[in-house]
Amino acid sequence: MNFIPCEDCALRRLALFKKFTAPELSFVRALKNNQIDVPARRVIIEPGRFAGKLYTLYAGWAYRYKLTPTGQRQIIDILLPGSLIGLQQLMLGDSESGVESLTPVTLCVLTGRSIDELFQRHSHLSEAMVFALMEDQRRADRRMALVAKQNGAERLAYFLLELVDRLVALDLGQDAMSYFPLQRRHLADLLGLSETHVSRSMQELRRGDLAAIAANSLVIRNRQLMINLSGYTLSTREHPRLLL
């Protein structure tokens, strides 16, 4: 993908993200010093290792994961366009989690300026960053709390509704249909199920005419029944997300 200046970024036009003042946009423009394309199934950040780079996921899907003591992968979250990659590692110097591309992705490389300047000179940007991190943590905490009490079909229904709403906010899907590159093994890692259990849960949703996954697409056939099944509620967003 050709280099896209920050002022021409398509994501910035979305209501989901914070609108910048001229000085804020100037700072972010200086922060971005490169743009790279990464193929699918490539490690962007390796657990326990960090090269000191911060990225914004501009296009494509990725996921954050941890490795268990036995070397098994546990997917923590699905990363969609607008997600910051490497902030935890940059702030803490290390992290137990890694990031891998799920599809081909385009990354904005944010190493043109020190991130410390953001906190020192642009309080509204740093505040928006904190709110975005808190929102992501709250979303993950809510899903994990429910997962501990739900069966496979309920877990899957909850995650699918959550993902669809995130895609709709990014203008990447509709309430009824979305692109869906996740495979059974990804869903198993994410939901704490076996691949066999994921298959059974998908079949249960299909038989109930609630949802169907096929050919890299997700179709929500009855949102209300999925809400009733999973206990999902759409999160209210009080603050726009930060897009660096």
UniProtKB/TrEMBL annotation:
Q: Name one GO molecular function term.
A: DNA-binding transcription factor activity
A single GO cellular-component term from the record reads: cytosol
List the Pfam families: cNMP_binding, HTH_Crp_2
Q: Where is the HTH crp-type domain?
A: 150-224
Q: Which UniProt keywords apply?
A: DNA-binding, Plasmid, Transcription, Transcription regulation
Q: Which domain of life is it from?
A: Bacteria
Keyword DNA-binding in the entry? The reply is yes
Stored InterPro entries: cNMP-bd_dom, cNMP-bd_dom_sf, Env_Response_Regulators, HTH_CRP, RmlC-like_jellyroll, WH-like_DNA-bd_sf, WH_DNA-bd_sf
Record keywords: Transcription included? yes
What's the protein name?
A: HTH crp-type domain-containing protein
- Whose protein is this, by species? Sphingomonas sanxanigenens DSM 19645 = NX02
